[in-house]
Each structure stands twice: as C-alpha cells, then as structure tokens.
Write a structure and sequence with these properties.
There is one protein chain. The chain starts with a helix and ends with a helix. The protein contains 5 helices and no strands. The protein is mostly helical. It has one domain.
C-alpha cells in the first residue's frame, strides 16, 4: 500500500512539473524548474510541520513528501539547465539560478517547516 501512495504522489508531481515546464518555455532563465523546486520546498516544509503538529498519518507523508515533492522537484533538471546556460554563454543566468535556487529553496523550507 505504501508504494501506491508514493506512486500516486509521484504521478501527480510529475504531471504538475510537466505542465509548469510547458507554461514557461519562452524564458531563457529556467523559471519552471526554479518554481517547481521552490513550491516543492514550501510543501515539504508545511508537511514536516503538519506531521509534528497535527500527527499527520505516515501514508500522507509518503504521498506528499516522497511522491508529490519527489515527482515535482528535480535536481537533475536544475543541473542540466544550469550547465546549458553556461554552455550557451548565459553565465550570469547560471549563477543566478544556482544562488536563487539554493538560497530561496532552503530558506522557504526552513521558514515553512517552522511555521506550525
């Protein structure tokens, strides 16, 4: 049953990531990957707080953290897009992507995990 929760959450997360990527195709900066990683960290922080505060069911944690956040966020796409920015001569955008992605994602995860 646990695998089913991970499967369902991962499918939903992957579909959301695909839709977000389709929406932001026109940008040089990898906006879609940045936003899905940021949203995933917000969800992760809120779920961590909910588990501690509301005694959230372990199955929901699997569905949301491992499945949804795992399917939604992607370090491999972040790395690939950053390297492509460098290869295409957009070094400044690559640096912005690294700095913003790491600092903001860690920041929102910290912020939202401490909220509840």
């Amino acid at each position: 049953m646990k695998l089913l929760y991970v499967f369902l959450g991962g499918g939903i997360g992957s579909i959301l990531r695909y839709l977000m990527s389709s929406f932001f195709l026109q940008y040089t900066f990898p906006m879609a990957t940045f936003l899905v990683n940021l949203v995933s960290c917000i969800i992760y922080g809120l779920v961590i707080s909910s588990v501690a505060y509301f005694d959230l069911n372990k199955d929901w944690s699997l569905l949301l953290l491992v499945g949804l956040c795992g399917g939604l966020s992607t370090f491999s796409a972040f790395s690939f897009e950053t390297l492509n920015l460098i290869k295409d001569g957009y070094v400044f955008y690559a640096i912005l992507n690294i700095v913003f992605s790491i600092s903001l994602c860690c920041g929102v995860l910290y912020f939202f995990s401490k909220r509840l």
